UniProtKB/TrEMBL annotation:
Spans annotated as Disordered: 1-65
Keywords: ATP-binding, Nucleotide-binding
A GO molecular-function descriptor: RNA polymerase II CTD heptapeptide repeat kinase activity
Name used for this protein in its record: Protein kinase domain-containing protein
InterPro entries according to UniProt: CDK, Kinase-like_dom_sf, Prot_kinase_dom, Protein_kinase_ATP_BS
PROSITE patterns listed in its UniProt record: PROTEIN_KINASE_ATP (PS00107), PROTEIN_KINASE_DOM (PS50011)
Gene Ontology terms describing biological process: positive regulation of transcription elongation by RNA polymerase II
Residues that coordinate or bind ATP: 127
GO cellular component: cyclin-dependent protein kinase holoenzyme complex; nucleus
Bias (Basic and acidic residues): 12-39
Residue span(s) of domain Protein kinase: 98-213
Length: 213
């Protein structure tokens, strides 16, 4: 996930493709994720979940009581076993508390959806992470991203607000503030002219320091 700028600064076409409108993010059905698309149900397999439900000795081995607490809080064992630290202090949001509006983008390991948070009414971006068979290495890779994003607090860095998953599912969504535009899209638009401080914020900082001294 790169940095995304400008919430509503410019109007342009919606990013990405998709058009899957107004549906629940997913439903839990016999331990597998069931995603409602265009009236039909597509069931995704929970590949390797039982295989991954034990802590992997090669990877981080958090204390057993912590794992137990996290599973009791609703986190799936395959996630707590590999990245307990990244989840610390959070409880998982439920998938049915968001309503998908549209698919807005795609990354190397993810699909990104515009969605409405039914609890707050806020529009958010849900990044659905694709794992390779829930391999601990790929889950841990995502855990690093989650840990770093949780620590970052800067107006130019998009905020991670939480995670959507449950004990019964093998899917994971990251909940972000929704941005109307991304930097690549703005840079590609011939009508958009960036100001010098937008292009070189470090230069602006140096100049303001110079003026103050
Ligand atoms: N918070 C957001 N608000 C609006 N659109 C977003 C948001 N996050 C991502 N997108 C859209 O989804 C696209 C893919 O996002 P993603 O963060 O997955 O990209 P990436 O960093 O290139 O992918 P990856 O992390 O998988 O390598 C972005 O280019 C952007 O168009």
């Amino acid at each position: 996930m790169g940095c995304v700028i400008s919430r509503q600064a410019v109007t342009s076409e919606k990013k990405g493709s998709g058009g899957e409108s107004n549906r629940k993010v997913d439903e839990v059905d016999n331990g597998c994720e069931k995603e409602k698309i265009g009236g039909g149900d597509r069931v995704q397999q929970c590949r390797g979940e039982s295989r991954r439900s034990k802590a992997n000795p090669r990877l981080s081995n958090p204390p057993k009581h912590l794992l137990g607490e996290q599973v009791a809080a609703g986190w799936p064992p395959w996630l707590t076993a590999v990245c307990g630290e990244a989840l610390s202090g959070w409880i998982p949001r439920k998938a049915d508390s968001f309503e998908k509006i549209d698919k807005i983008g795609q990354g190397t390991y993810s699909n990104v959806y515009k969605a409405k948070d039914s609890l707050t009414g806020k529009i958010v971006a849900l990044k659905k992470v694709r794992f390779d068979n829930l391999e601990p290495e790929s889950v841990q890779f995502m855990a690093r991203e989650i840990l770093i994003l949780r620590r970052l607090d800067h107006p130019n860095v998009i905020k991670l607000h939480g995670l959507v998953t449950s004990r019964m599912t093998c899917s994971l969504y990251l909940v972000f503030d929704y941005m109307e535009h991304d930097l690549a899209g703005l840079a590609a638009s011939p009508e958009i002219r960036f100001t010098e401080p937008q292009v070189r914020p470090d230069k602006m900082l140096h100049e303001s320091v110079a003026i103050r001294t």
